[in-house]
Amino acid sequence: MSQTLNLHQTIALSPDVISQEVSGETVLLDLESENYFGLDEVGTRIWQLIKETNDLNTIYNTLLSEYEVSGERLQQDLTTLLTEIEGLGLIVLKEAA
Question: Per DSSP, what are the bridge partners of residue 13?
């Protein structure tokens, strides 16, 4: 994927999505489409951070300190996940004010 995430963006959770953590993973339900989605352990950590802060740069730096991963790889993985869940309508990425 050639697109990279702008770390100065903010993230808003869709009001139509509810989440429940089950055994270290998260199940998301989009009330509008009635579709379920699952997040693995790392995806669950990212979802937790999105709920704590809407600042993508803070989320990136927190994950960088918690996981043994290069900054480039983390940015690629975040871009992939966030682009996917944004496309599903689970979050909204916005340019920071």
Answer: 91
DSSP single-letter state for residue 55:
B
Q: Which residue has the tokens 């770390």?
A: 7
**94 contacts 14 by C-beta, under 8 angstroms:** no
**Collapsed DSSP state (helix, strand, coil) of residue 66:** helix
Segment 47-96, tens digit of pLDDT = 999 999 999 999 999 999 999 999 999 999 999 999 999 999 999 988 86
Contact 64, 71 (CB under 8 A): yes
Name the DSSP class of 77: H
Answer for the pair 27, 37: CB distance below 8 angstroms, yes or no: yes
Q: Is 69 helix (H, G, I), strand (E, B) or coil?
A: coil
Domain architecture of the chain: domains with CATH? 9-95 (3.90.930.60)
